[in-house]
Design brief:
683 residues; alpha+beta; nine-stranded antiparallel sheet; 14 helices; 24% strand; globular
Length: 683
Amino acid sequence: MNREALFCDGTQDYVIPAEPEAGEKIVLRFRTAHNDVEEVNLLCGDKNYAMWKASSGDEFDFYEIEWRLGEEPFRYSFEVKKGEQIWYFNRCGVSNHRENYYEFVIVPGFSTPEWAKGAVMYQIFVDRFYNGDPSNDVETGEYIYIGAPSQKISSWDQVPAAMDIRNFYGGDLQGVREKLDYLQDLGVEVIYFNPLFVSPSNHKYDIQDYDYIDPHYGRIVADGGEVLPEGAQDNTKASKYQKRTGDIRNLEASNALFAELVDEMHKRGMRVIIDGVFNHCGSFNKWLDRERIYEQQPEYPKGAYVSYDSPYHGFFCFHDERPEAWPYNRSYDGWWGHDTLPKLSYEDSPELEEYIMNIGKKWVSPPYNVDGWRLDVAADLGCSNEYNHMFWKRFRREVKTANPDALILAEHYGDPVEWLQGDEWDSVMNYDAFMEPLTWFLTGMEKHSDERRDDLWGNPDSFVGAMRHYMASMMTPSLQVAMNELSNHDHSRFLTRTNQMVGRAEHLGAKAAEDGVVHAVMREAVTVQMTWVGAPTVYYGDEVGLCGFTDPDNRRTYPWGREDREMLEFHKEIIRIHKEEKPLRKGSLKLLFADYNILAYARFEGDEQIVVIINNRSELQEVTIPVWLAGVPREGHMKRLIYTYEDGYTTAYDEYIVENGEIVINMGQHSAIVLKPIEVVKY
């Protein structure tokens, strides 16, 4: 029996329809080599059901079975027999025994937004992208945060300081608006914003007010009771933090700007995802008011840090709840011990839960019409796992009722399977089934650049094993919208990882992040990113060769005027290919070949195939790839869509012979190629 030919997954070619409703009849398909097996059985629970050969071609046979779904999740795998041979097939592929953990799963009624499947996303850390409105900049000394004044950085090209949290470069939403042509030309379909709500830090993961966009990102139209002339820049000494961020006119103007921006993006066919930081808020938040911003404003109730009798007292977990201890001991739980990030105590406050549910609905509804949420440290929310799941189940119901097409995507490290049962998150930021395995394989580096592992560098068994295991934790609809990043605001830039230098900017210096980087390896990684299953997500600046060690060095400003133009043009080409080739959106994925620092795989859907080959070795390598496993005709030709190599890339036309189902190709050092069969015109 040809075990390599055995194939099935959860895509629309093998589950019809791919996202069925409860009670709906579906067709399940399974692929074998032509006339190669005697039986294919569907395994469900302790029973098996015979499948019939529904179609047969020169290369493959397809077996089918009809099944009517109930209300509960449907779990299944396959048994394939030929004589004394028996193989089992599950989400991880072929096995000589049945493994229930890796069974295929269909949850009736579970679907993910069609627009997000394979969508090209772009992450923007707003303060560092582009300054479109200098009048809203944070001023030096405007307020005190963590014991020191805010700083306005005058040089856009200055690298972030080690203590960067209170330093502002001036990027804002108007800057994003002015660069929409650039983003559209790049091929971006979705923008994911790091937090936008009112906050005293540049990262804004310490939210002060969830109801409003921060005026330093939005519009400042009033100062201290005075309305500013249109276009005027407010530099008066009296313009302190609360006069700007607390003036309702500035808050409403900023919300209006955001609504305008989202509307303009929608008109361009682009979508918007915003960051939901609901596990913790900021110590500036009106609920806590540790910095006593709101205390003297009669329109606001007293914060929980100011008064024991605050209506918000139950929003936080204070370490000494005795009234007589107040105000001598006001310590409270902070996320990871950070007192600027007070953890929210939902279990003790139904009012808090209700408020956050309303926030979840507010921003995906008119007039803002945001297309989805990225949920920060989502598995940490609440004080128990039981409550955490209850919260996210309700959050999904509330948000999907307000906007059925909204995406709910969580930050998560480790196995996400318990949250991906179809009733909580849609998917995750794909660390374990993308960023980490690919980084280890191509660079041997940990994603923070904190460790180098030569045993994992180019290790095909480690790469394939990790990918298969963690991809099997996600149902296909979740996998197709998973955020596949190479870099982001929490980890070192991928291009920096290619220099295989262990350390951080405070120890090595920022310049070291740019030393010895290998652009060819970066192009390999981007090629995989744009051809793997999921939503390829570019972290702003990666497309123009921006470097940086981990936080905060990874938050350097976009280098306008200093871009690596070749890297930018390469991104445009590979994004174009991703968007033009149908299998790269929702097609099946099959590994064709893996060896030390060599990888080949295929994406296919219907009668279309794409083959990708990576040579991460430092020398020329001849490889033989069995492309017939993807449905490529055994005899014919394939054309090159793009080829990246040590010194650059090319999209120039070239052809390669397919003979006896295989393609033999010479791959240069640190190279990648994307191939497509040449269609034979029959007369």
